[in-house]
Amino acid sequence: MFELKTSAATRAASRSLSQKQHINAAAMMPLQILLLTLLLVRNANGFVPPKSVPSSLARSDGIPRQMSPLLQLTPVDVKIGIWTAAFSASHIGMSAIRRQLIDICGNVAGTAGLVNRTDWRLPDIWPGDASGGQEIFPTTDIAGRQLYRLGYTAISFATLGSAFLAYLESLQQQPPMNHDSTWFVWIATASWAVSIASLFNPSPLSLVPVFVGEGQSNMKNEASSLIARNDAQKLQATGMTRITRHPLILPVVPWGLATAMSMGGQTRDFLFFGGLAMYAIAGCAAQDLRVIREEGSVGTVFAPGATLQDFFDDTSFLPFGAVLDGRQSLSRIATEVPWWALGLGVVVGYNLQLVLLDWLLRVG
């Protein structure tokens, strides 16, 4: 009995230490991105070759090696890096204090008299959620969440939009190099397909509502009795979330790297598209942090006390991680994945990628 208690205590202590390590790592992300930004600013005037060649860059015959283009930052490269870093840092930072920001927004909405206004309602044909029905701001919490999302979206457009404009400016200054990018296009297509298919797969981290048929929800809405919203189903691992708990965002990693290579693999390409790939990893880690903190606020599921930890324990960050350690099975994945959506995603993703690349090449 003593050994069992000791073992349980050891596991609890280990889990607590792991959670603290996750929290500390996530808390350092904005600082790390800020340091990267400062390094970019330091090189704002471009790369200046050293007067003497370091021994590590000298060949045996005494002739200096050519410096890698990735070490050269033009002023527009710096702009791309700064705005991409600002996009990542602001999102990760807002995610880290999401609960506090939602509370502030909710209190402001309550003070302004925006909460529980019966005249502000969704159309009856649109299924409301189980928390507030058809009202837009039924409670202070929901009002805070919605206003938080508006601010989150506004910052996205401002920072990411500025980074994209700087990237277009770079393309106009120096057109991309022509090369065969067939393989990279297909990698990007597969990434598109997974993200698109995930929109039809319930997930608490996807920001996509779950709609169910009649009798599967506790919503009472006569006008939309054939379909209702029930986000509680997001808390159960199913289909693509048995592969990874981040099927919507993680595909940005291969997409970003493949698109960077398709555009020539220059410094600006990795600063922008590669920066988005890095953000996808950091952003997903920040979402996991909210579960570790037992915040009860992830995606469109906003229910303190909900069993988010169960979903977290049943799924993995890395694709197929939960399958390899036995928590999930390939047979259940095969029967639950929306294959029709995956096929649709391949067709749509392939065309979207070609349109994007063609447009960017025309800009250059």
From TrEMBL:
It is a multi-pass membrane protein. Keywords: Membrane, Transmembrane, Transmembrane helix. This is NnrU protein. The chain crosses the membrane at residues 150-168, 183-200, 270-289, 339-361. It is found in: Membrane. One of its GO terms (cellular component) is membrane. Residues 143-354 form the NnrU domain. It comes from Seminavis robusta.
